[in-house]
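Q: Structure tokens for this one, please.
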Amino acid sequence: MKINKLLLLPLLFVSLVFFTACDNEPLEGTFITEVVVEAEPGEFVCMTGEVDFFAETISATFFSDGRFVISGQNTEGESIAMQVADGGLGGFNLTQGGASINGAVYIASGDPVPFTTAVSLGGSGTLNISLFDTDAQLVSGTFDFTAARPLLDDNGDPMVDDDGNVLSETIEISNGSFAEIPFTIEEGTGMPSDNFGCDVNTNNFDIIELDVDRVVIADVPVIKILATSSTGATVRLDIPEAIGVGTFEMVQISDGTELIGIYKAGPSETSLSSNPGTITITTLDLETGELVASFEFTATDPLETDPTIVEISNGFITVDYLEEDPMP
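A: Here is the predicted structure, written as tokens:
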């Protein structure tokens, strides 16, 4: 590993020294030193806050659909992972939001709540790949990102300010670099078999858990999908299994057997249901359990006591609802 120390002096101070200092006079003043960490071949390094991070184990995979994932874990159990949709030479935005799958994650040792680059929490970042050799299967690059996660109260619920905004904490991942890391090339997309996403009031719904179940209510089989975000918010869809393929309107009040969408900003928040809402199902295989659909709905309080209106848009679902262990 190389450590380059760059001496940064204010221009005015440099000018004064140039014109007044004698050869035998010691230099005086405040010198600011910035440490730039550069990885040697086979290394993955960065700074997590003010602490050096040196990966003990490194993994990199390039999938046939273009997705590239690289991760590193140190001896203390901290881990960093980055993902981009179209791996190759160039710069990539790691900010998670909208329909982009690009992003980065930092996980502290022994702490199950990840820091992510979700824009809704104030995350951002960049990855620059300077070497991407698919013949030798080696990759090099640099990265920096700000990762965030919600602050939780004693009950494990996200804390909010007086305006209802989720409070978050951040960590700076800086001076990141990796050099000549071997990567594997694999068929497929690298996507989990179950996948879900949407925007909430134009912000990406930063999903960390997806539960998919088939239940029978009053002799009616229903596919229940519950997505939970890093802030504790949830998006739920109830889809009658016999609905078929096509575009269908959602109801606002259901006995558990009808098509409905429900949004909750947190465990103790009001359940806001679809009014109106639609789902377009392109695949629904009763034998394999494959469900592919897109959806959107406006969520409001069916009891009309809470004036909050939430727009759920750009929703997509790709799940196997008969699978025993859906992702988180």
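A few notes: The longest helix spans residues 11-20. The chain has two domains: 44-186, 195-320.
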